[in-house]
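Changelog note: in this version the structure field was regenerated for every chain. One regenerated record is shown below for reference.
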Amino acid sequence: MLDTAAPGSAIPADGLTDLRQLLQSLQPEADPVRYYFCSQIQLDADLAMQAFAVVREAEGWSLILPEHALPDADEAAADARAQLLCSSAAFVRISLKVHSSLQAVGLTAAVSTALATHNISCNLIAGFYHDHLFVPAADAAAALALLEQLSADMRRMQQSLSTGMDDAGRQ
């Protein structure tokens, strides 16, 4: 059996599950790199090694590639990378630095709802330690601000509950 707590930490080794704790601790961080969602029928191993993520689908392989990994237009058509179909839209990756459990309930819904209410598209990928949101590059700054505000609001609400005060500062 695996350890149940990370060394020197009160956080279980497989992450937090309490939604309030998760939302209070989001710590969203934007990667300055632009990413593109691409598809390939035959997976090119060299390209896959540069991808943030690779997903096998019935139609082929989906890759989330950083802009610098995209093949140049003048590359030989015989190259396997020439068979790459990529979205025209650029995305920014926002990582939630909180160590969330893969069994946590509600985090994806809370984050996607916060963005959806502001008409911001969000494609989410869960890693073992963190969740990664891919939002349109044009909306990245707004998305980051909304996630920071969501987390701050949850911390403020928890503090109010702890001190017995309401949102207006009354007991």
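Spot check on this record: The radius of gyration is 19 Å. The chain has a mean pLDDT of 84.
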